[in-house]
User: Which sequence fits this backbone?
């Protein structure tokens, strides 16, 4: 499968626990985005990497959230001390910065449920 | 920042009819407008997009039109089929926004057989 993949697909955790999600983008894509989607809403931007550099973070991203893309390939999103309000679908997307192209391709998402 | 709104929030059409979904945006600097289709429990899939240097783009049964002056763009689906039933999201981005997408809230399209 050459598309964007995410793991795990589902995560159930208790409030206060830490969770980590992984995203593997399309192999030649140098841009990687994290979005969060709640029921009945469109995806909301969380953070963005170009290669290994994290270039932008949304104000939605509290200091309990941290993301990395250590070698410019896969990325991880960690949420510390989870809260019930963190329950959502976390989507990863990747794109190729080349000649102004913007198409972002999404992964299947990780659905987080915080009990 | 950018604000994208979609109207209506739900749309029901008879199979074979056309469907039109409209979006408005606020940032005049926005220059890229994709449309995503999301089926229940699945990832958003890019179905068509348009850049600000063109007014219309077609791909088989789907088309997108852009009115930069009025800051709105629309998705047109002709000869709708039951498998077109899904949630459709419009989005916008600008060069100064690192291409991060601002999405509308989505519209649920139901195609009645």
Assistant:
């Amino acid at each position: 499968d050459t598309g964007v993949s995410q793991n795990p697909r589902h995560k159930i955790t208790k409030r206060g626990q830490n969770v980590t999600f992984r995203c593997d983008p399309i192999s030649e894509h140098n841009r990687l985005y994290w979005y969060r989607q709640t029921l009945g809403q469109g995806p909301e931007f969380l953070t963005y990497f170009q290669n290994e550099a994290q270039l932008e973070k949304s104000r939605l991203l509290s200091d309990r959230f941290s993301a990395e893309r250590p070698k410019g390939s896969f990325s991880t999103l960690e949420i510390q001390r989870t809260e019930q309000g963190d329950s959502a679908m976390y989507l990863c997307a990747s794109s190729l910065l080349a000649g102004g192209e913007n198409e972002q391709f999404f992964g299947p998402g990780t659905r987080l449920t915080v009990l | 920042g950018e604000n994208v709104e979609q109207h209506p929030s739900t749309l029901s059409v008879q199979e074979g009819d056309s469907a039109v979904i409209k979006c408005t945006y606020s940032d005049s600097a926005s220059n890229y407008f994709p449309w995503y289709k999301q089926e229940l429990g699945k990832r958003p899939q890019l179905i068509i997009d348009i850049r600000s240097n063109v007014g219309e783009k077609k791909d088989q049964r789907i088309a997108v039109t852009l009115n930069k002056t009025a800051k709105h763009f629309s998705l047109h689906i002709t000869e709708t089929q039951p498998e077109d039933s899904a949630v459709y999201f419009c989005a916008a981005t600008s060069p100064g926004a690192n291409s991060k997408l601002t999405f509308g809230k989505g519209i649920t399209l139901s195609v009645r057989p």
Chain B touches chain A at residues 4, 32, 34, 36, 42-46, 49, 89, 91, 93, 98-106 (CB under 8 Å). The first strand of chain B starts at residue 4 and ends at 7. The two ends of chain B are 41 Å apart (CA to CA). Chain B has a mean pLDDT of 93.
